[in-house]
Amino acid sequence: MQGLRTFPPLDKCMKHQDRTGPPQGTIFDIPTPSLTLDLPRLERNAAAMREKVRQLGVTLRPHVKTSKSIDVLRVLTGGDAIPITVSTLAEAHYFFEHGVTDILYAVGIAPAKLPEVAALIRAGCRLKIILDTPEAAAAVAAFSDANDLPIPTLIEIDTDGHRAGVAADDPLLIEIGRALGGNRAGVMTHAGASYDCRSDDETVAMAEQERSLTVEAAERLRAAGLACEIVSVGSTPTVHFGRNLDGVTEARAGVYAFGDLVQAELGTCAIDDIAIGVIASVIGHNRHHGRVLIDAGFLALSRDRGTAGMPLDWGYGAVCDAATGELLDDVFVSSTNQEHGIITSRSGEIDFDRFPIGSRVKILPNHACATAAAYGRYFVTDGSERVAATWDRVNGW
């Protein structure tokens, strides 16, 4: 198999180890483990989501916590200036510095972060924050008054009992809305329970539950005389399976950009749509136990086991031919140590000739966000083994 080529000469490896200079060569010339990004797949995924939200009649506010890259965002937007969602203030600074001005920081605000939020707003960033308690609302209002600076704030709504938020019918919703005063900008939710759905019908129902409860919360605020301009919903599964977004102003999704094995199991993408992968080298054979060892462990692949409860458990990643990206039947990364990944066979029989020492494989991730977080850049390919570019990403908080 072409994907089972041996290591390049040492001098070629060393040229890439210094992380400098323009991209050159192929995925067989880069150090391992490395993160690759298939540009044609990314472009197809981006175009499909833009068309989906166009049909739904809402604004797309992509969540960049998956990619953390301005180069990826330019593909997602199709060249348009659109709002984004971030998960860290480091992302907010990075994307603002690259010209993005409408940003939602979609993690409940810690009051200690308000000075940093204020600095971004004063610099011209239209940054919005979220919260779900009267105490946090009071802290934002007090800070806003003390600094004579409005801080646009969305109230997080609990539409599925999955994680955070205030219920749409909870009296606290109105209390929070009043406490925010002029900082109140709208409501938002994230139906994380969509990841527990096991059929298309279940996910369709969850998407409608997400929509209807968030709209209900907005209507309750308005009925109480409290303005509610933004109604923001979203997760990749609920946007993908949503049938209508009446009453909603914007949809947020992130992992659709890359896809991953969890998304493939949920039905939002196919294996052939997954745009990122970890290139790893075969470093050992344990013939007695039927194991192939690679140099990508849990630090390179993440410990995410998102497919563990799904119809097909992919362990720590699916194994593909490095050059073609084609899925290798019957094998997967069944366990990891810090720097070791262990490939085994579902049938119990593994063909070691398929994995010569020094050859390379591509591992598709369970959770694209978690796996990508281990890397500072993407090796961007053109759909083949050729490395066409390197794109940096921002990590940290």
From TrEMBL:
<feature type="domain" description="D-serine dehydratase-like">
    <location>
        <begin position="275"/>
        <end position="382"/>
    </location>
</feature>
<keyword id="KW-0456">Lyase</keyword>
<dbReference type="InterPro" id="IPR051466">
    <property type="entry name" value="D-amino_acid_metab_enzyme"/>
</dbReference>
<dbReference type="Pfam" id="PF14031">
    <property type="entry name" value="D-ser_dehydrat"/>
</dbReference>
<dbReference type="Pfam" id="PF01168">
    <property type="entry name" value="Ala_racemase_N"/>
</dbReference>
<dbReference type="InterPro" id="IPR042208">
    <property type="entry name" value="D-ser_dehydrat-like_sf"/>
</dbReference>
<feature type="region of interest" description="Disordered">
    <location>
        <begin position="1"/>
        <end position="26"/>
    </location>
</feature>
<dbReference type="InterPro" id="IPR026956">
    <property type="entry name" value="D-ser_dehydrat-like_dom"/>
</dbReference>
<dbReference type="InterPro" id="IPR001608">
    <property type="entry name" value="Ala_racemase_N"/>
</dbReference>
<comment type="similarity">
    <text>Belongs to the DSD1 family.</text>
</comment>
<protein>
    <submittedName>
        <fullName>DSD1 family PLP-dependent enzyme</fullName>
    </submittedName>
</protein>
<dbReference type="InterPro" id="IPR029066">
    <property type="entry name" value="PLP-binding_barrel"/>
</dbReference>
